[in-house]
Amino acid sequence: MGRYGGYGTIAYLLNDNFEIEPELHSSLSNGLMDEADQLLRRSATDGYLISLAETNYIWGSNMILMNQAMLLLLAHHFSGRKKYEVCALEHIHYLLGRNVLDISYVTG
Q: Do residues 58 and 34 lie in contact, with contact meaning Cβ atoms separated by under 8 Å?
């Protein structure tokens, strides 16, 4: 259970309305941070500084890109480390026009 598991993990880590299980919380948090670190490494080798893998360039890849940006922002939220926030911002730049087509993928 050490891997990041998506929206359920996010809901668990951000919800403070119930008592947490420390071991589960730690496992989920570590998984999220491991995933964020992997995204950082991939972004560092990309010409546009984003974390999309070659296989992620599909119809709907903007959703993948923004989910990865959200994960990076959550890593910033939990760790306070600016590098995650900076990387997430690079994803926004890409979506809004700093890309191979030089157009906004939101507005065209």
A: no
74's tokens: 């959550």
This prediction's pTM: 0.90
- Give Cα separations from 34 to 29, 47, 81, 95, 107 (angstroms): 9, 22, 14, 24, 33
Distance CA 59, CA 28 (A): 29
Structure tokens at 58: 């599909």
DSSP classification of residue 45: T
Q: What does the DSSP 8-state code read for residue 68? A: H
Show the low-confidence residues of the chain (pLDDT under 50). 1-2
| 20: amino acid identity, one letter | I
Of residues 74, 85, 87, 83, the one with CA closest to residue 9: 74
